[in-house]
Amino acid sequence: MSELLDLARRATETVREHEEIEAFLTHEREFQVKVYEGEIDSLSSAEPRGAGIRVLRDGRVGFSYTTDLTNHGLRAAVDSARENSNYATPDDAVALAPAWTEGPPELTELIDPAQTDLSPEKKIEFAIELEGMTRSIDRRIRTEEALYSDSATEVAIATSTGVAGSYRRSDAWCYTVAIAEERDETEIGFEFDLARGIAGLDAEAVARHAAEKALSILGATKIPSRRMPVIFDPYVAGQFLGVLGVALTGEAVQKGRSLFAGKIGQQVADPKVTMVDDGRAAGGPAAAPWDAEG
């Protein structure tokens, strides 16, 4: 059992009659470096850790958060959440997940083992190369900034209803902002990439796409207003779908606040549009064995 999971279990052992407790603990190691014109512009490294506590009593839920993961700190957080529940509005839709019948789910593709041993110097070198590649695409290109960032995370969850598990994951991502200039015109292009580790990032593709986006807009003119087919860039399409995503959350549907509520089995979009919600999809950027509520 991981230390974090052991702490989560301890927090739920203080459960009282007619209440339920959930403890959600995280421990992260974060690194980020930004580069401008071949030099480090900013660099940060952090190791945040903390526990989020939920206490449910008579349909009321109380929250608390602490960075003190000692036994005393966790007990104080539970007491605080318990006190906060007294002032919450009862909500029949609030509940803790039932115990897992087959043990905690597992995902095997959440970590790049080589990422653990990667030195800060290698990460800085990657960011400098990314920024330099962007500027080298075309004489009309300069950069606003290039970034490399990563995190190593451990998550543990335990509830008084019998849920208990932990997992680790690694993430790395980068982006570059290219600025194309010609005569008196200036345009901006942005591109990013993300993977489990730095080895999965394609700096050359990120630099090229960011520069090409900026260059492609140079000389663009406004077209007349009319109805016509439109092709969205994947990044733009994702932003549109993100707006709809709020209406697809379980909470929005259960509380009748979604335009999709009560439409299971009905066609709600063009047949060419397909969306799949699977938090355990292998390779998904936000994949995890469970969400923040078990």
Give an overview in words.
The chain is about 25% helix and about 30% strand. By secondary structure, the protein is of the alpha+beta class. Strands 1, 2, 3, 4, 5, 6 and 7 form a seven-stranded antiparallel beta sheet that branches. Helix 1 crosses helix 2 and helix 3 runs parallel beside helix 4. The protein is globular and about 75 Å long.
Enumerate the spans where pLDDT stays under 50 for 5 or more consecutive residues.
none
Task: List the helices and strands in order.
Answer: HEEEEHHEEEHHH
Strand content: 25-35%
Mean pLDDT: 92
Termini Cα gap: 17 Å
Strand-pairing-aware structural class: alpha+beta
Shape: globular
**Approximate helicity band:** 25-40%
Please work out how many helical segments DSSP would assign: 6
Give a count of the beta strands, DSSP E runs of length 2 or more: 7
Taking all Cα atoms into account, the compactness measure Rg is: 24 Å
Largest sheet: 7 strands, antiparallel
Question: In a nutshell, what does this entry contain?
Answer:
The protein has 294 residues and is an alpha+beta fold. The chain is built from six helices and seven strands.
